[in-house]
Write a structure and sequence with these properties.
By secondary structure, the protein is an alpha+beta fold. It is built from twelve helices and ten strands.
Length: about 260
């Protein structure tokens, strides 16, 4: 209904509550109303009409006419709605300036923390990442931050879907070794990774299968927990660890795979 839409717009965009919006629509429709009359022509409960009309007056949407029984008439919609927008714009400008000042103050206060030797990920060195999307974001972040080497034993999506990030790391001088499971070969046969392998910019090998896929970027290790149901529903649980001791353990396993694998 038209009336319901007017009430909805007043609530959503002009900061009136439900009863205030209903009362204002009624005032616009009837012109002048007493509290008792408002209760009879609108869906505002009788015990609330006095408070609602006084609130409308305070917000500038109504004007009262004192007398034995107070009467209220609406401020013309074009006037009050335009005035509301003008005041809202000024308020937003002030809030925007306050937020900018708060940002500058926070940056100044936090700068000593940012510049300390605290590790990037704080005290925590182990994180759980769930879902393909989140795992992809984390993997991409690792490739962007890596400085020395990438060791990837991949039986899934990384080499096929993050080719650009791997190539970018190789172009920065990062040493890249990749082992792909044999069933992944059809997905990367047209990949630029193959060209980089032929040119010696990265090292590529293939292995029929391996029980522990992994990604190592410098001291960071990323691997998936075995859960076929989670993998089927794209909610696989991945573990990220940043610790050189854990890295050494995984790198030892990667080297075992590397010795068994064949050049691609």
């Amino acid at each position: 209904m038209v009336k319901d839409r007017m009430v909805e717009l007043l609530q959503e965009h002009f900061e009136l509550n439900l009863y205030e919006a209903r009362a204002y629509v009624a005032l616009v429709g009837f012109g002048v109303l007493t509290p008792a009359e408002l209760a009879s022509v609108s869906e505002v409960p009788a015990p609330r009409t006095y408070d609602v009309l006084r609130s409308l007056e305070k917000k500038g949407f109504a004007i009262s006419q004192p007398g034995k029984v107070n009467k209220y008439r609406p401020v013309h919609p074009e006037n009050i709605l335009e005035k509301f927008i003008e005041e809202w714009q000024e308020r937003i400008k002030e809030e925007l300036e306050l937020k900018k000042k708060a940002k500058e103050e926070l940056l100044e206060l936090m700068n000593p923390l940012i510049e300390t030797e605290i590790p990037k990920y704080g005290v925590e060195r182990v994180w759980v990442v769930r879902g393909i999307r989140n795992a992809t974001l984390k993997t991409r972040e690792m490739f962007e931050d890596v400085k020395e080497k990438i060791l990837l034993a991949d039986d899934g999506y990384i080499a096929a879907n993050l080719e650009k990030e791997i190539i970018s790391a190789a172009d920065r001088g990062v040493a890249v070794k990749i082992i792909v499971a044999e069933n992944l070969l059809p997905r990367i046969k047209t990949s630029k990774l193959i060209d980089y392998g032929k040119k010696g910019k990265i090292e590529l090998k293939v292995l029929d299968k391996f029980e522990l896929p992994m990604l190592i970027c410098d001291d960071e290790v990323f691997f998936a927990l075995e859960d076929m149901a989670a993998r089927y529903f794209n909610y696989e649980t991945q573990i990220w660890i940043r610790d050189f001791r854990v890295r050494n353990l995984f790198e030892g396993k990667f080297n075992e795979y590397w010795e068994k694998a064949k050049k691609l």
